[in-house]
């Protein structure tokens, strides 16, 4: 078993005072001594604040999205180089809330992932089926079609994309619903993603395959059983990442499975 990755996606939540309190609680929880990789992704306006608060900490800083281009006339957008300069180590791309609210399609998400890798960031590519696809039993088809453009982007990057990313599987119907997918269900889709990765990047040995995370209503009470899945490399946490004790409990459960 290898180290798990636990990422807190704060979404559009926080304030200068609340962020400081949360980060101080997380950085004084002794997570650095535990075998687990932890990260937080605040709203972009708070990245500089968190970069300061996280100086000398093992807690990694991440962003919630990135533009695919290096610079230019893209009002409101932020480049991968800017995120790297601020101290970000990773960036979420293709979160379902970005796909739904900002029309980001899978081709664009692959281009964002490529831009991130080129700037030295770890892209966390989010995929997941809608409630309709879930009801129709089409979760593997939905997820593999979202992954497909990563193959061409990987070729464009000379094979360096798929060995330097993370995939996060977040079934849309499980996000914020309080109903996580069952471990059995999650296992089927995570194994499917790993098979896709192994077929698309045959040169990668099994222990070099990128980590595949699960997200969607993760809580301290269900984290352990999800992390115990063979294919589960970690968790992408929303609501519970805003509560210090809950996020610490989830990170601690992950350390116990390393
Ligand atoms: P919740 O944990 O609040 O369901 O959110 C999951 C998510 O979307 C993380 O990116």
CATH superfamily: Aldolase class I
Which second-level CATH architecture applies? Alpha-Beta Barrel
> What's the structural domain tally?
1
CATH class term: Alpha Beta
Give a written overview of the molecule:
- The chain is an alpha/beta fold and 258 residues long.
- It has one domain (5-27, 35-256): TIM Barrel, CATH 3.20.20.
- Helices cover 41% and strands 15% of the residues.
- The chain is built from eleven helices and eight strands.
- The protein has helices at residues 16-27, 47-53, 80-86, 96-102, 106-118, 131-135, 139-147, 149-156, 183-200, 220-227, 244-255, and strands spanning 4-9, 36-41, 60-63, 90-93, 122-127, 166-169, 212-215, 234-237.
- The protein has an eight-stranded parallel beta barrel with strand order 1-2-3-4-5-6-7-8, surrounded by seven helices.
- The radius of gyration is 17 Å and the shape is globular.
- The mean pLDDT is 97.
- 1,3-dihydroxyacetonephosphate (13P) binds at residues 9, 95, 170, 175-176, 215-218, 236-240.
- 1,3-dihydroxyacetonephosphate binds at residues 9, 95, 170, 175-176, 215-218, 236-240.
What key attributes describe this structure?
alpha/beta
